[in-house]
């Protein structure tokens, strides 16, 4: 069964092509507290199950160190000035006592410092410490600390639900840094429209993935991201899911209501928002990694299109008996027709924590 998607108006913006996939992480939720989510007459939470691909941009809280390395000075000596002082996964908060929020600010400060030691305040596992690193002058005259850093991350994922008060949940898992494997500590973020432009089918030897276009213009923003947790990303949507996208609200199933058997997966991977048949093979309510559902794709059309569950579809809503029961989170590499999902109830609880 399919339904027409009325998602995009005419966007006048530059298009940036991405095939980036957002990976799994783990940390506490930082989403807004005490969200007021409407309920049905029967006392059930009502949300709009989505399934649309979206572009995700996150700015880190501080400059993330992704590694240290050797540098060659102007005389040809090789050294590693930051070794043992900072680690991959540290966040730089200040340089010489001044706040730093981007790679550019960090590079400019080191350049202006010259040969003087640089004091960094770094955050590691919630604790702060100050270290002093002696810059190394390279053959090009540029001073370096021998650290690799990142201040943002971006990619394509799937919007899971929107509540009637405009709060959203997506991905069903956290966004982790590709180099450190740690959950990205988020300062801010934005949700953008995305359009799937291609599908790399899954095979017996490799995971499939989506490629798509993200509309990175301020005027195209769909909403703001306020939290990145083990259960997904959360924030506030600016679009109206009913008026702008033609979506219909549905109750959220309690975890104990979810059963093994037939269900549907909603996605716009074909270019049209569509429901595909899947099977819930097992329900695991006490799984500590939020792999609450074991799924298998049975729909011939989706199998033909993707080979099963592919990377980039994280967050695709799962419905059973007219209720939102969960979201896709993982694909099994040894069998792309199967994967895992998280309870929708768990996502909503994380959003409100």
Features:
24 strands; disordered N terminus; mainly beta; six-stranded antiparallel β-barrel; 353 residues
Summarize the structure in short.
Helices cover 8% and strands 44% of the residues. The chain contains 3 helices and 24 strands.
Describe the structure in your own words.
Mean pLDDT is 85; it is low at 1-37. The protein has 3 helices and 24 strands. It is elongated, with a radius of gyration of 22 Å. With 353 residues, it is mostly beta strands. Strand 4 (71-72) and strand 5 (78-79) form a beta hairpin. The strands form 4 sheets. The protein has a 6-stranded antiparallel beta barrel with strand order 3-12-13-17-16-14. The protein has a 6-stranded antiparallel beta barrel with strand order 19-20-21-24-23-22. A two-stranded antiparallel sheet has the order 4-5. It has helices at 103-113, 300-306, 344-352; strands spanning 15-18, 46-49, 53-68, 71-72, 78-79, 91-95, 98-99, 118-124, 127-133, 136-137, 143-144, 147-163, 167-170, 186-200, 209-215, 223-229, 232-237, 250-251, 261-267, 274-283, 293-297, 317-320, 323-332, 335-343. The relative contact order is 0.22. The two termini are 35 Å apart.
